[in-house]
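$ run holo --ligand "phenylalanine" --emit tokens
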Amino acid sequence: MLKDSIQNAKSIPELQDLYTATFGKNGTMTAKLKEMKNLEMDARAELNRENSELRELFKNRQTELENAAMMAALANEKLDVSLNAEPENRGTIHPLTQGLHEISAVLESFGYVRYTGPEIEDDWHNFTALNTPEYHPARDMQDTFFLANGNVLRTQTSAIQIRAMEKQGVPIKMFAVGSTYRKEMDATHGPMFGQVEGLYIDKNVTMSDLIGDIRSFFKKFFGLDNVDLRIRPSYFPFTDPSIEVDMKWNGERWLEMMGAGMVHPNVLRNCGIDPNEYQGFAFGFGWDRLVMLKYNLPDLRDLYGNDIRWLKNSGF
Ligand code: PHE
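-- output --
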């Protein structure tokens, strides 16, 4: 019987063939329905009932077969999540790189333009132009790596402010980032460390502009509403007056954060700039120290150890 065949159709194509044989152009029901007008009332009602019953049966079987097909597909594609997967080695951004991106973004938002310079520097850019000529006692402030030809491994990014002023002249608002080298090694000092240098020279730049920018920088970089700064007199041959900036950390201890000051007239002169017309400030700090503080890292050497286990667990 047709009804049993519908009920027992094993697949959607089989059901479709049956449907065509019943309701298609030459289908059995189609033929009967064409004759409807010649039938008695009772027979018409009976045919109508049969018509809807068959359509209903087709529809239900179709749904059953579709559901069964879906369940079969699901069972087939099921993932065994208990299987051991191959370990995946995913790279992450190194904490120092991440910190540098953040520092640069803050300084750029203040209008400082980024510069770079060579790590092997000549005496002029690393010392002499920075008002530290030969025999100047301040050369001993930094334990320098000398190369046989008299060049040095850059001891400070301050060398880049000279290059920037020579190249661009004034007014200038720039910052430089890069590795610097000194002969020292303990938990907070390595022979290589990252420094950031800022320089702003124009006609009316003052010490309060300097302190304002430093305060805004710390606020934005550390995400603080307010920062307590302590300004102490200091000495650098290339700034006068020179200051050291401390910042109150966690409301309890003072941390030494950076050196800064008003650019010494000799430095401006060495770059062909008239100090009677232009003045400005410079500041410099260790960017790895800032990263250590922001992310609460205890030992600077971890940052340069390239130990994958540490890097993976450092929270980056
Ligand atoms: N170059 C100084 C240092 O390495 C830091 C500094 C930069 C100080 C600019 C003043 C102005 O210690």
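-- notes --
The longest strand covers residues 192-202.
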